[in-house]
Design a protein that fits this description.
- By secondary structure, this protein is α/β, with parallel strands linked by helices.
- Helices cover about 50% and strands about 10% of the residues.
- The protein has eleven helices and six strands.
- A six-stranded parallel β-sheet has the order 3-2-1-4-5-6.
- The protein is globular, with a radius of gyration of 19 Å.
Length: about 260
């Protein structure tokens, strides 16, 4: 019998991809207005340079373990978390943001570090102004809360994940517990964070489903732990058989129907 539902946060409940895309679009359009560069080309360039630069830091293995991607690094302060690696990231972040945008501009023939700094600061503001949730998120949480205990299990740096949660009015109240990888010390798909979540909720693996959008973290980790995985595949992505979810849904609304059958 299913007693609890574990949820991923980004691109499961919050539409993070859209928030990031809109923040890039607004920032790159500003750069285009200033310099004449193509906004779409600049976004591609900055994304490429950010990924490359991010991977050169000594903190990169830590960010992979915790689950902090390069684009979160473009607006995270890294002011939270007790681990020493967060202090290193906190020190690196301002320079990383500026350098990623400056290099992105440079690839398109604009050498202007001051504009790079300006765009880096704007991107953070643009992203923070867009706490977008999926249309069905609250409707589904309202229904689930009547019959199930809910846990939020998210990868990321504590200050940024809490900022995302608190940025959406009323979201935190739905969850009995919230587990953030940066507070726990390891991220999905590591089995330990799933086992910790089970212990926190005082349930066994066969009494839980885990709902998430990423095969390599949410689904792989829950499969390894013996938790029934529910892959939310809103975009109809074709997968191979390397990581196979127990269940697949196209929207959160389908989760309500699925749980009735379990």
């Amino acid at each position: 019998m299913i007693k609890a539902v574990f949820f991923d946060l980004d691109d499961t409940l919050l539409w993070d991809d859209r928030s990031v895309e809109e923040a890039f679009a607004a920032t790159c359009q500003h750069a285009s207005d200033r310099t004449g560069v193509n906004a779409n080309e600049l976004e591609h360039s900055v994304r490429t340079e950010a990924r490359a630069l991010y991977s050169t830091y000594e903190t990169f293995p830590f960010t992979q373990m915790i689950g902090i991607n390069p684009f979160e690094g473009l607006w995270a302060h890294f002011s939270g978390g007790q681990l020493e690696s967060f202090r290193k990231l906190q020190a690196l972040a301002p320079g990383y943001r500026r350098e990623a945008w400056t290099r992105g501009l440079s690839k398109l023939g604009v050498d202007d570090s001051e504009l790079g700094f300006e765009l880096a600061e704007q991107f953070g503001r643009e992203r923070r102004s867009r706490p977008i949730v999926y249309e069905e998120t609250f409707r589904v949480l309202d229904e689930l809360k009547k019959n199930y205990r809910l846990l939020l299990l998210t990868n990321g740096t504590p200050d940024l994940q809490w900022e995302k949660i608190n940025g959406v009015s009323g979201l935190e109240a739905y969850f009995d517990k919230i587990v953030i990888s940066g507070e726990f010390g390891r991220g999905k798909p590591d089995v330990s964070i799933f086992e910790h979540s089970l212990q926190t909720m005082e349930v066994s693996a066969n009494e839980v489903v885990m709902v998430g959008d990423k095969l390599t973290t949410d689904i792989l980790g829950s499969n390894r732990t013996g938790i029934a995985s529910v892959w939310i595949n809103r975009n109809g992505v074709l997968r191979n058989d390397e990581i196979v979810p127990k269940h697949e849904i196209a929207s959160l609304d389908e989760l309500l129907e699925l749980l009735i059958t379990l």
